[in-house]
Amino acid sequence: MADSYLVVGGGGFLGGHIVELLLARGEAAVAVFDLVPAKFDPDRVKIFVGDMTDEKALSDAVKACGATCIMHTAAVLPGKPRAVQELVNVQGTVNVINAAHANGVTKLVFTSSASVVYGGKDQAGVDETEKYPAVPFDDYNDTKAIAESKVLAANGTDGLCTCSLRPAGIFGPKDVKGPVPAMMNMAAKGNSHVQLGSSTNLYDWTYVTNIADAHLLAADRLAPTHPKHALVAGQAFFISNGDPRPWWDFPRMLWRAGGFVETRRRVVIPRPVALVIAFLAEVVGWITGKEPTLTRFRIHYICTERWCNISKAREALDYEPRVSLEEGARISAEWWKSQQST
């Protein structure tokens, strides 16, 4: 029997791409639950507007659409107060699990993050044997790790099969607050010649539809009848393009695809110096009440080696990134340029 899908956060960046892939492969029963009305054809997608911190509203939506498979992509991103991240990322996920139990859902795919095992130090070729850090790098990583652990612990309870996907460095079109607009705006303002750190650190980037592919693969393999069910149920998987690059190679790839030519002499600011500048910017921001454009968090993000081993996903999920970094950069740059004229 075909599944009925509910994408929690389906009006967002990754969730929207997952919905598009479900429709593209001909799924007849697709629904979205999000804070704002998702922009899909209501004749093809059932639209539910609600807050996942409201367990009743969420459970009612699950019941109304008859979901057998939930893909949970919603989260509060870094920067919000700890209490807000706990409410959304942790309690919201508990609500998803409870709604699944209450309505006989058999599959739950959770969107985690590669950063759940990041403690602020270099990680080269990290795999799923890595433990959560004793001291989390920030509240986002910590709350996502807590949520992931609850999802995995729910596997096998009340007929529910679960798994968790850990995307690394997600990018792509339609992400209005993500790395693509940030990097392209940097070039548009004439700042592409400034480099923070040495760029000798390798970093994983992942094109959004590759991550969406992984969600569909995982959902299919959570079926108890699938030959790889035992390899997937209750497991976490790193997802990337499998092609780590020096950090600054990626924005320069985007800039070339967008037609920006770096003509000014490159200015390299060493990591220790950048951290001092960021600290001073944070102090000024605290005094003025304005969010600084440069923070110590961003410096760590840019200057730390972080890439993962996706062998487990390749084996268990039959995952293989279909869109290369170069092609993803081209598509993303074209999308960004199209937004500048609207």
From TrEMBL:
The keyword Cell membrane does not apply. Transmembrane segments: none annotated. Keywords: Oxidoreductase. Residues 6-263 form the 3-beta hydroxysteroid dehydrogenase/isomerase domain. The keyword ATP-binding does not apply. It comes from the Eukaryota. SUPFAM superfamilies: NAD(P)-binding Rossmann-fold domains (SSF51735). GO terms for biological process: steroid biosynthetic process. Pfam families: 3Beta_HSD. One of its GO terms (molecular function) is oxidoreductase activity, acting on the CH-OH group of donors, NAD or NADP as acceptor. Belongs to the 3-beta-HSD family. This is 3-beta hydroxysteroid dehydrogenase/isomerase domain-containing protein. It comes from Plicaturopsis crispa FD-325 SS-3.
